[in-house]
């Protein structure tokens, strides 16, 4: 006879499982000195239990069979009829399951085919390091640019143009020594672009993007999707021909790609700005792969130093980008006041924000400076350049996952903000 642990090990189950089966009457151990031991009958019962589980019988059903088995001396025609009815019932259940599974299987094949056909219509997807950029800065957009240092005009040198779009070149200030590089159709605000080719992250962004979407909490994505819907509706209702949209911290391009691929309006300019080279190039890759036919300008660099003329933008968008900006530069000023100079009078500021209610979070010392934009009451004070403002609560979450390093909070809330300068 075997002790519980040895018996469990023999059948590759846990001791708790063995004890549970004994409690339920599935196993009938021998009791000696208040200890359970399992004999050859228990081994036969355990083999039957595991076999019937593989046949999708429930523990209650298995228990019924074991009861009949233990009273084998009472077998008669009625017992035989019971067995026939019992197993035929299970056969019928399993056939129904098979039919449903076959139907689901066929639906999966059709859905998979539909998805693959969608992607087969596009060019082969390649990694960022191997991607050949084909779209650039529309030439006519140059009249909206100026030197960030002295506000003078920018002249174009060493240029490579295709289809009236600038793919490579230098933007040189006509009065000072400021020079901006255009490479792969992206305006770079500093020289980091020359060192980018050795960065490892560029090859991992495709898998990062997939894993990010796959693993992100539903409690986060649902209210953020509602924010995106609110901002997109506002844009579609007010966007006019030749308008200019500026998105700060466009990141992986979540809002940009969603809006540009869904809007019916095409005759406007969309400026996607991000401070990280890998993200700027990757979002542009996605933009080109999806064949979006909207004039889009990619600018990589600090949003406080954009080469845009004052009051040249109709809409400024901040789609949950403020947090990443600050956590990369914890000592920086809040950039809202810098955005105001780009926005036209009566231009609109559209923002999706994650913020806390006052008293719902305690900031560590190193994060004290960013409290002004993470407490909704204080965030309103940073929007003083707006004469009209509406704030819509889009939902809340108590999911305390990795929220930009913050864990000491009760609840995070999600807001869409729309204001007019």
Describe the structure.
- This protein is of the alpha/beta class.
- Helix content is 38%, strand content 22%.
- It is built from 13 helices and 15 strands.
- It has helices at residues 4-10, 15-23, 40-54, 59-70, 77-120, 205-215, 218-238, 254-262, 277-289, 322-328, 336-339, 371-374, 376-381, and strands at residues 2-3, 30-32, 35-38, 137-138, 154-162, 165-173, 179-183, 186-188, 244-248, 269-274, 295-300, 313-319, 343-355, 388-397, 412-420.
- Strands 4, 5, 6, 7, 8, 9, 10, 11, 12, 13, 14 and 15 form a twelve-stranded mixed sheet that branches. Strands 1-3-2 form a three-stranded antiparallel sheet.
- Residues 195-202 have low confidence and may be disordered.
Following the backbone from N to C, one meets helices and strands in this order, namely EHHEEHHHEEEEEHHEHEHEEHHEHHEE
> What would the principal axes of the Cα set say about the shape?
elongated
Largest sheet: 12 strands, mixed
Structural class: alpha/beta
Give the mean pLDDT. 83
Could you tell me the number of beta strands?
Answer: 15
**Strand residues, percent:** 15-25%
Summarize the structure.
It contains 13 helices and 15 strands. It is of the alpha/beta class.
Question: How is the topology of this model organized?
Answer:
Layout: E1 2-3, H1 4-10, H2 15-23, E2 30-32, E3 35-38, H3 40-54, H4 59-70, H5 77-120, E4 137-138, E5 154-162, E6 165-173, E7 179-183, E8 186-188, H6 205-215, H7 218-238, E9 244-248, H8 254-262, E10 269-274, H9 277-289, E11 295-300, E12 313-319, H10 322-328, H11 336-339, E13 343-355, H12 371-374, H13 376-381, E14 388-397, E15 412-420
Parallel strand pairs: 8-11, 9-10, 9-12, 10-11, 12-13
Antiparallel strand pairs: 1-3, 2-3, 4-6, 5-6, 6-7, 7-8, 13-15, 14-15
């Amino acid at each position: 006879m075997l002790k519980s642990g040895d018996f469990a090990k023999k059948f590759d189950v846990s001791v708790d499982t063995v004890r549970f089966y004994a409690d339920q009457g599935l196993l009938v151990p021998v009791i000696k000195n208040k200890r359970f031991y399992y004999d050859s009958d228990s081994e036969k019962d355990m083999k039957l239990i595991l076999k019937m589980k593989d046949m999708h019988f429930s523990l209650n059903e298995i228990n019924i069979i074991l009861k009949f088995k233990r009273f084998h001396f009472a077998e008669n025609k009625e017992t035989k009829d019971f067995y026939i009815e019992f197993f035929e019932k299970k056969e019928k259940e399993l056939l129904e399951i098979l039919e449903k599974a076959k139907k689901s299987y066929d639906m999966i094949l059709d859905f998979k085919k539909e998805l693959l056909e969608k992607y087969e219509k596009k060019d082969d997807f390649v990694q960022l390091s191997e991607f050949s950029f084909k779209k650039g800065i529309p030439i006519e957009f140059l009249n909206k640019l100026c030197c960030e240092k002295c506000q003078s005009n920018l002249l174009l040198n060493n240029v490579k143009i295709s289809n009236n779009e600038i793919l490579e070149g230098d933007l040189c200030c006509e009065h000072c020594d400021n020079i901006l590089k255009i490479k792969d159709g992206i305006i770079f605000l500093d020289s980091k672009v020359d060192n980018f080719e050795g960065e490892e992250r560029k090859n991992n962004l495709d898998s990062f993007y997939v894993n990010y979407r796959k693993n992100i909490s539903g409690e986060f994505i649902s209210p953020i999707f509602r924010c995106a819907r609110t901002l997109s509706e506002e844009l579609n209702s007010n966007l006019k021909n030749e308008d200019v949209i500026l998105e700060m911290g466009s990141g992986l391009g979540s809002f940009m790609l969603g809006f540009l691929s869904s809007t019916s309006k095409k005759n406007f300019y969309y400026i996607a700005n991000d401070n990280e080279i890998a993200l700027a190039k990757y979002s542009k890759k996605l933009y080109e792969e999806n064949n979006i036919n909207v004039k889009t300008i990619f600018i990589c660099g600090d949003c406080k130093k954009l080469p845009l003329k004052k009051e040249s933008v109709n809409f400024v968008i901040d789609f949950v980008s403020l947090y990443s900006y600050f956590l990369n530069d914890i000592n920086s000023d809040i950039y809202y006041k810098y955005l105001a100079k780009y926005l036209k009078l009566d231009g609109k500021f559209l923002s999706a924000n994650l913020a806390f209610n006052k008293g719902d979070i305690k900031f560590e010392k190193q994060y004290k400076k960013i409290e002004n934009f993470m407490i909704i009451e204080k965030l309103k004070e940073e929007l003083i350049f707006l004469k009209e403002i509406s704030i819509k609560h889009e939902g809340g979450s108590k999911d305390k996952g990795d929220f930009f390093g913050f864990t000491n909070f009760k609840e995070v809330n999600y807001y869409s903000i729309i204001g007019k300068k």
